[in-house]
Request: fold
Amino acid sequence: MIINGVTIDETFAEAFGMKATRAIITAQNEKWAMISAQAMTGFATSVIACGCEAGIEKVLDPSETPDGRPGVSVLIFAMGGKGLAKQLETRAGQCVLTSPTSALFAGIDEGVQIPLGKNLRYFGDGFQISKKIAGKRYWRVPVMDGEFLTEETTGRVEAVGGGNFLVLAKSQPQALTACEAAIEEMRKIPNVIMPFPGGVVRSGSKVGSKYPALGASSNDAFCPTLKGMTKTELPADCESVMEIVIDGLTKEDIDKAMRVGIQAVCDLGAENGIQRISAGNYGGKLGPFHFHLREIMA
Amino acid sequence: MSALTFVMKHRLDQRVDMSPLVCNKLDGMIPSEIAAIELQNGKSKIRVDELFRIKGDDTQNIVIEGSFAKLDFIGKQLEGGSITVMGDVGAYLGLEMKSGSIKVDGNAGIYAACEMKNGYLEIKGNAGDLLAAALPGNKQGMRGGTVLIKGNVGERAGDHMRRGTLLIEGNAGDYCGSRMVAGTIAVMGTTGRYLGYAMRRGTLLLWNQPQLSATFNDCGSHTLAFLPILFASFKNLNSKFAKESARFNRVQRYGGDMAETGRGEVLVRI
Reply:
């Protein structure tokens, strides 16, 4: 399959099951909601060392938020329910509770309920106030700028993590430009995040390493500087490969995000140095969810 | 199916215990069985068909027409379904109600919504003393649900109230929110003396400045984020509380009752 001069490899991306939740952060204005959301989703690029993968899903209009203020929705993914709950609580406590004018709400009602403000309330040292409104429990925690309002719990659902595709380009600037275009389109898709810095990974990994202590290591088959030293997957004139990793609430959400992302890259086409689209395929070792590039782009 | 309707034939001198006529107890019964139910009337018993003409057969939708102030315990321990009352009701309306809805288009006597657990109760007229309170000797009054009073309420509304929302469009008598444990009472009209007397926690949300006891301390004026959410939850009510113009998020906050644990609050619109 070739789209606008870009070859779509006959391969698939592998993804695995995760647990996910959504939180809605509101504040006096969008600027402060975004600051809080960025702090909450910081250092959350990969479960390998961050404990979770998190990102900003979208900016919310005041009409879309529970308290009628500007807001930002964030998605957090982890390998297990306990890990997710722990990450959510620490991040909410350190990054949202502390952020001026913020309030924190559940973004998913269904599923297993996990603590959001349930334990943060103890910061109120006995002055916290519970309010049950329309079947939901909220906590009002007195803080120095007024009151921190938070919903008691949020819903945890089954999700999919690790959807991905690789962009092979003739030069590093061209690879980055293509990935930026893809991310811009993919951010319009709900229920997904691209957790890496700016949504783009330059250090895609393979499963395993020559060092027994490491579970993952540099994907040498796609490293352009190793073309002559390893079993490379790259054409001779490829100088740079970048990857976009997608976590989504469902496989279908990731399908959609991959489709618009790959399309945006292909729109730039061969004339802008884009050569191929490939994917992190680990021979079925990584996970049960397979995203066949050609099926997605069919 | 049409609503199971009890039309009052004549008014009695003695009070009537209406507690057998709730949706969950009548579920599955045919009209002749319902007609044969005996209601306590003073010291004697009276058959339902002696007191009411019965129409319809939907036991989950009960209507009482021609009600008056001696019909007590209407909707006692109601669990699902709806009861609509045309006229006044006596004491203990919706006592220990668990779910469902009760609507009264007249006035209610004492102890309406007493120890109510959940559901929706609406009174178009006035309610007597001890609305949403606990029975004498008990420690917890209303424990959940929503009560809307379009008229005025008597003394000690929300006494020992534990949870839930009590909305009063009119005025409240003395001791409103007394010994309150938690929950929310909103009063659009005026409030009497000893507001929140011995309240431990909970919120009294007022449209008019009350006469506060010395044991309530001024905590200043604030914009509170939970108020828009609280008002949004009223939007489907047939009430002044649902109106956009009734909404506010800026209040003067008073903490109290400091003679008790003092974690309660009186919020007054500013």
